[in-house]
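discrete fold record:
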Amino acid sequence: MKKDVIIKKATPDGKVAITMFADPEVANEIVRLAKEAAIEVIDGGKIETVAKSAIQAEVFSRIQEIAEEMHKTNKDPVKEMSLTDRLIQKMKQ
């Protein structure tokens, strides 16, 4: 059984970039919660294949590029509760 994965990386400005490899249902729920929390969701396009030979530096480089794109928007989302707390709350219901 293949596990879902979240890659988390801190940016220089203290924010956190997240890349998730998960089933569409899980990913869509996370995206929905993010949008409810006024967090901008950027579509990174489609990944054709994920090979085991992918170099970790390339993965983190792409994550950094996405984080920089998000930072350029300079939108400070207003949120009362963290996305993680909202997800936990939803899962408890």
User: Anything to note?
Assistant: The chain is about 45% helix and 15% strand.
